[in-house]
Every structure is written in C-alpha cells, then in structure tokens.
Amino acid sequence: MVWTSRILQDALAHLIEDPGARRAVDAARERYAVRRGLLRDARRDEGVDVRCEDGLVLWVPVAQEQSALLHLASYGVTVAPGSPCHSGTPVPAHVRITTCAPPRSARAVVGSRVSEAAHTSSDCPWASGNMSRRRPS
C-alpha cells in the first residue's frame, strides 16, 4: 500500500479545482500535443510507422531494441527502451522518445538518427555492442 500525506492530498484537491492550475495544465497539454505531432509526422515522413495519439513519449518501432539503443547512443542521442514498459504479452521492439523540446540545433540530427535507428537491423555494426567502433559519417 502506498501512503500519501494529508498535506499532498489537500494540495492536489486544491489544484484540481483551481482554474489557474487547470489553465496551466491545458496549455501544457496543447504544447506537448504540438511537439508530439511534429515528431510523429517527421518520423512518418521518413517512413517510420509511429503510432502515438497522446502522452509524453513517442513510441517508435525498431527492428531490434538493443541495436537501436546502441545506434542512437553512438551519436549521443538518449532514448529509453520500450520493453520494460510492458508486462504480459510481448510487444514488437520499440524505443521511447520524450516529447520535450530539444534545442533547435539538435532537432534535425536527433530526428534523422531516430529514423535510422528505426530501420536498423541486427546486422548493423552497433548490434555487436562494440562501442569502440568509429562512428559512421
């Protein structure tokens, strides 16, 4: 059982009913929806079948989760594995990308690397786990 203090319960009850807090949540929801839509559409334009309608992360299908994680890490792009987020029936391999706004200078690089990782197969040079290999150009 999880215990939550009465102070936190009272604060949450206040925020749920507070019009200002509700407006702030609505504004954040809209900002994240726009970011998610831009990321989703850009991946789809590059041939990645991304399915995401809401939430704070974009779920990107990949050929192999570990290969995709290593490929992205070799470029300094950090994403989260998708497999720990499911219990029960296994789901196809995927990675999770936050919908936070990366710096403008990084958006194109991150986007193209994510699309590459989505198409990366087990025979890619990063699949062996040998991170000492030279980064591709």
Corresponding CATH architecture:
Alpha-Beta Complex
Describe the main β-sheet briefly: 3 strands, antiparallel
Overall pLDDT: 76
Strand content is 5-15%
Name of the CATH first level: Alpha Beta
**How would the global form be characterised?**
globular
Which structural class best describes the helix and strand composition?
A: mainly alpha
Please write the string of helix (H) and strand (E) elements: HHEHEEH
Lateral arrangement of strands in the main beta sheet: 1-3-2
| First-last Cα distance | 52 Å
The multimeric state of the shown protein is single chain
| Number of spatially distinct domains | 1
What percent of the residues sit in helical stretches (DSSP H or I)? 40-55%
Number of helices: 4
Q: Can you say what the CATH homologous superfamily is?
A: Aspartate Aminotransferase, domain 1
Features:
single chain; 137 residues; mainly alpha; Aspartate Aminotransferase, domain 1; three-stranded antiparallel beta sheet; 4 helices; 9% strand; globular; disordered C terminus
Structure, explained:
The protein has helices spanning 6-17, 19-45, 65-73, 104-118; strands at 57-61, 80-81, 94-98. The protein has 137 residues and is mostly helical. It has one domain: Aspartate Aminotransferase, domain 1, CATH 3.90.1150. A three-stranded antiparallel beta sheet has the order 1-3-2, with helices on one face. Helix 3 packs antiparallel against helix 4.
